[in-house]
Amino acid sequence: MTTRRKFLTTAMLASAAATAGSTAAEKKSPDGKHYRTPVKIGMGGVALGNGFAVTPDAQADETMAAAWEAGVRFFDTSPWYGLGLSERRFGHFLDGQKRDEFVLSTKIGRLMTPDEKFKHGMWKGHLGFNYKYDYTAAGTRRSIEDSLQRMGLSSIDIVFIHDLSPDNGDMKEKWTEYFDIAAKGAMPELTKMRDEGIIKAWGFGVNRPQPILKALEISDPDIFLAATQYSLMKHEDALENLFPACDKHGVSLVIGAPLNAGFLAGLDRYDYGGTIPEGFKETREKMMKIAKNYDTDLRTAALQFTAAPSVVSATIPGARTPKQVEENMASMKAKIPPEFWEALKKEKLISANAPVPA
Question: Measured between alpha carbons, how far is 231 from 264 in angstroms, rounded to an integer?
């Protein structure tokens, strides 16, 4: 590392430590040990990273402005989302807001490298970057420094170790080798950065429960982003295994992809794999009919469902347009009759023991 880079790293992280204590209102777990987000709904950053389709710059700005106007105060992004684009767009807007009024989370695990020719199926448009995995201690510090620079912000509240999971197509069965690197590098480094006051909390941001359960056994995380693991369509395993384990350790969950990447909002797209599981369209149709009978809609039910468990800190649907933001926020405020949830359980469309909104 050059002398200049050492100076930048030290100066930026010192600034982050100085401001972290004054950022958005803190909320702790019942034992007072682990940070929880102070708001129940946030905004995910996949769509503003050109996930699945190009989002024009002007539309991205309008969507962020609509989110702020609607009351969104938790924003989740990642270097991976649009290969840096999502972070740049989030930072461009959030730089104009008071830092103590919002919660910001991003992720580590991939370092961006310039590459004009690189293309990735999920991220659309001309992005100009490639990536390499790095879960070491040095890579973790470097990633956070890079994120601060991309966003132009002085601090990050939550850092998630990203996509270190058996469903990651780059890793597959080798994910445990990456996990071992993180266990010696990223995890103790993030704990140190938390103790230094540079961040408030850390955990994993993954699409499978195995890394979360393994991390709880060997380290001291605060909060996890469980994407595609808890929704109206799929929640039994989380209820039986993931939730009890998190409760036992006093840590909370942020629910990612609560609409299964748009499936529960009516899109014929499920999660991030491109394949809709057999029978899911029929199940969705049954749920939509019941929702209509009780004067609600499936997106509203899906969002409220993911926010209902006590172990959940927040749910973070994505949004590509101002209209989607407004619909998501309206859904969280809507009243759903208890009879609707009773009907779903009676028809065995959701688990009998699934928590539902009061």
Answer: 9
Nearest to 215 by CA among 149, 161, 274, 158: 161
Cβ atoms < 10 Å from Cβ of 54 = 13
Q: Are strands 35-36 and 27-28 parallel, antiparallel or unpaired?
A: antiparallel
Per-residue CA distances from 342 to 45, 257, 349 (Å): 33, 24, 10
Give the tens place of pLDDT for each residue, 42-51.
999 999 999 9
Architecture of domain 33-346: Alpha-Beta Barrel (3.20)
Phi-psi group of 331: left, alpha or beta (phi > 0 → left; psi -120 to 50 → alpha; rest → beta)? alpha
- Among positive and negative, which fits the CA dihedral 77, 82, 88, 89? negative
The H helix count followed by the E strand count for the chain is 13, 12
Angstrom CA distances, 37 to 29, 50, 53, 156, 189, stand at 10, 26, 29, 13, 22
Those residues whose C-beta lies under 8 Å from the C-beta of residue 35, and which sit 6 or more positions away, are: 26, 27, 28, 29, 157, 158, 200, 201, 222, 223
Interval 252-295: pLDDT, tens: 999 999 999 999 999 999 998 779 999 999 999 999 999 999 99
Report CA torsion sign: 120, 133, 159, 154.
negative
CA atoms within 13 A on the CB side of 250: 11
Q: What is the DSSP string of 4-24?
A: HHHHHHHHHHHHHHHHHTTSS
Say if CB 93 and CB 68 are below 8 A apart.
yes
Task: Please list the helix, strand and coil fractions of the chain in percent, rounded to the nearest 5, in that order.
Answer: 45, 15, 40
φ, ψ (nearest 5 deg) of residue 159: -120, 125
